[in-house]
Design a protein that fits this description.
Blueprint lengths: L6 H14 L7 H8 L3 H14 L2 E3 L6 E3 L1 H15 L2 H14 L2 E8 L2 E8 L22 H7 L4 H10 L13 H14 L2 E4 L6 E9 L5 E10 L9 H16 L11 H4 L2
Antiparallel strand pairs: 1-2, 3-4, 3-7, 5-6, 6-7
Helix pairs in contact: 1-3, 2-3, 5-9
Length: 266
């Protein structure tokens, strides 16, 4: 331990590390025995952390466990970890150019999770989507873009635990429709949801790949269906360009997307 280290702070952080390993809680005596910190010092440190909101005492078991403040710190840090600043910045560029709500989702722990939402002043936001949302991936553009890029065995595993639900009368939610929709998405390199997730709303998505060619996530924009022109691919090309820029930031060589995982991977 260096001369500049504050001994009591170092001990307090050691206690937090131990408490984190036992979500059910621990006694101060156990912590003292495990860490070698004198019992009296342990009591003072735990009392301080309780007063500051980092540790709480369970009223039933009387054991000490991590408190809400740790979760708050994690939630403050998590967006920066899950969505790199460069990708967040690029999503805001899309908003500035198109004035459409832009979403970034990540393939994480075999879930499609919305991690970032950027809104413009005149953007139309899909009301029920929020950061942390992970449902109905078969019928929204972010989900289609990600699922279409999964190896078949991973997609099969996902489908075993996620059952499609038709959110609107236009949702492509049958097994046959899902397979066809993901094939089309993989072949053309972008996804489309026209009134499938929410009536009157159109969403376009594009996959984001990482350095090894596997799927990282997807970026999508939403707009009123009345503003979507299926005869023009200008918006599609624009979004795919940004998805490629995001992939490039993650180290994906732009020439390596020669095969389509949904169609050719194991």
């Amino acid at each position: 331990m260096s001369n500049s280290t504050i001994h009591s702070l170092s001990r307090g952080l050691r206690l937090l590390d131990y408490i984190a390993q036992y979500p059910e809680g621990l006694t101060v005596k156990w912590l003292s025995a495990a860490t070698g910190i004198p019992l009296g010092t342990c009591y003072h440190l735990i009392k301080t952390m309780v007063e500051e909101g980092y540790v709480e005492k369970d009223k039933i078991t009387l054991l000490y466990k991590l408190s809400y403040k740790i979760a708050y710190l994690y939630n403050q840090m998590r967006p920066a970890l899950t969505v790199p600043d460069a990708i967040r910045s690029l999503s805001h560029e899309i908003v500035a150019d198109l004035q459409e709500t832009t979403y970034v989702a990540k393939w994480e722990h075999e879930e499609v999770i919305i991690e970032h939402i950027a809104e413009g002043n005149q953007a139309v936001k899909v009301r029920a989507l929020y950061v942390g949302y992970r449902d109905h991936a078969f019928v929204h553009a972010l989900g289609k873009a990600i699922l279409s890029a999964l190896p078949p065995r991973v997609l099969a595993r996902y489908r075993q635990t996620h059952f499609p639900v038709a959110r609107t009368a236009r949702s492509h939610a049958t097994d046959e429709q899902i397979v066809r929709e993901l094939q089309i998405t993989a072949e053309r390199g972008y996804s489309l949801d026209v009134g499938e997730w929410e009536d009157g709303v159109c969403c376009i998505g594009a996959p984001i790949f990482q350095y090894d060619g596997t799927i990282w996530g997807a970026v999508a924009i939403s707009m009123p269906e009345s503003r979507y022109d299926p005869r023009s691919e200008d918006t599609v090309h624009y979004l795919k360009k940004y998805a490629q820029a995001m992939s490039k930031y993650l180290g994906q060589p732009q020439s390596s997307r020669s095969s389509v995982p949904f169609l050719s991977g194991p």
